[in-house]
Each structure stands twice: as C-alpha cells, then as structure tokens.
Amino acid sequence: MINPGLSSLFIFLVFVASLLAVEAKKAFRAVLFMSLAGLLTAVIFVLWKAPDVAMTEAAIGAGFTTFLFLMALNRIRGKEK
Amino acid sequence: MKKVIALLLFLGLLFFLGTGLEQGLKLGDRNTLAGKAGEAYLKRTVNSADPSASPSQVEYGSETDIEENAANTLTAVVVGYRSFDTLGEVTVLFLAATGVMALFFASGKKKRLALAKPNFILSVSSGFLLPLIILFGAYVFTHGHLTPGGGFQGGTIIAAAVLLLYMAGNAYKAPATGLKVLEGFSGAGYLLIGLAGLLLTGFFLNNFLPSGKMGALFSAGVIPVVYILIGLKVSAELSGIVSDYMGED
Question: Most exposed: B37, B88, B97, B99, by fewest CB within 10 Å?
Fold first, then answer.
C-alpha cells in the first residue's frame, strides 16, 4: 500500500533540495543539490510503485545530468582562465 | 516579495499534489481504477491465478496469449501499444545527440578535459566494476518485458560505464566511429522491424513474432527485440555525448 506520510516527507525533501539548488551561491553546489533532488524524486517514484520511471530518474536525473552540468562547468572555467 | 509569492504558489501546488495521495481525499472521483477502460489489462497479477476475480485470471509462466504476453505492463504499453511514440522519443534523443555533436564540432577540436589524476581505489575498482555495470545494463534492457526497466534505462547504465572508464583511466578514448555505426544500425533496425510489421500484418510496428509464454525470456513477440535495439542505440548515443564532452586527446 502507498504510504502517504512517507511520500509526503520525500516530496518535502525534494522541495527543500530544489530550493537550496535555486538559492545556492556557487554553481557547483547548485548542480549537486539538483542531483540530490533528482535522487529523492526517484525514491518517491519507488514509493509510488513506478520502478521503471524511478530507474530512468535515478540514472538520468541524478547521474547523467549531473555529469553533463559538471563537465560543462569545467569547460567554462577552463575558458575563463 | 517575488520569492514569497513563488513560495506560496509552490506550497499550494504541494498541497494539491499531497491531497491526491490521501485515501478518501481524492481530487474528483474519476481517478478510481474501476472507471478506467483497461482495468482487466492493468489488474493482471504475475504471481498466481486468482479465480474469484475474472479480470486477473492470469498465471505467470503459463499464459500464452494475453495482449502479447509482456509481464511488465508498462513495457507492453510503451513498446506494444505506443511503439510509434517510442520511435518519436528515440528520434528526439537522436536529434539532441546530433545537436550536441554539431555544437562541439563547430567549436573546433577540443583538448581533453584535464581531470585530476584518478586515485588508486577508483582506478583499481573500475577494473572489476566495469563488466558488472555493463552486464547489469544489458540485463536491464534484455529483460525489459519481464522486469522494470528497458532500453532507455539499460542504455543509460552502459553509458555510465563508459563515463567510469573515462574517469578511471586517463588514456581511454571511446571509439567514436564505431559508436556512430552502432547507433545508426540499431535505429535503422527499429524502423525495419516496424516496416516488417507493416508488410506482414498490415500495421506499422505491429507484432509479427509468436508471443510465447508470459514470463519466459523469449516471449512478448517483437518487444524484447525492439528494446534490445533501443538499448544499444541509447547506450551508443549517450556514450558519444560523454566522449564529446571529454574532448579529444
């Protein structure tokens, strides 16, 4: 059975992580908080009995996007120097 | 002020979403499963037959013809009923990867990203983690019709293995031409399967293979073939993006 309290808790955590990502002063931290939000979203999908979507979210939302952002950040910094 | 308004809007949305989860606090009464068309299809169980309810008289491992026999309902929808949408999705991913490639190509040859020297643990453990990750990715996309997962998920996992190779060994370079050939051939294979369905059954992307027993590896007709092709295509595309970002040497 879906536990409403537990998924509400994770929705709140995603909210907090997204807020931190938006308000972060450093781009690096913003990317990491975005990754955290993606990972917590994957947990919500597992709680809502959607493991297919959860796998996609964990692999792309939390893993691959973070990598792309970090590499792009690395490239931009290399150019600024 | 702007932030307060945004916060209030977000909390309102959160409340809206949250109330949908509570039992008996549904937003309208239309989201009951009984009111939906595919109830019999959605309610099937993969554990045992439940003779009391006629819609769920489906037995794992013995059923031979229930809607092309994919044990994972979501895959049956994504690659069975809505295979044309999935073809569009694959095309979107292909266009995105082409865009990334074009951007990198236009800006000239890139030097390889100067990453920090990988530490001992990473470079040693990547040696035996790599085959396991690739095996898991292949498992996810070959068993897409049986267990959660599928071509997109498995492909991303394999691309993560390529990323691990880049992170662990500074000398590694992905075979860019081979990846493009693999991507092109698997994308064309998907289209060819669709055309074969059109020729043999009269409908584009329709199933034309025997559907076998539900729960067996060789079941669900054309679905595992399509998902293996999608898995190869997605893994080649995402690995190509990784190697584009990492730059040439």
Answer: B37
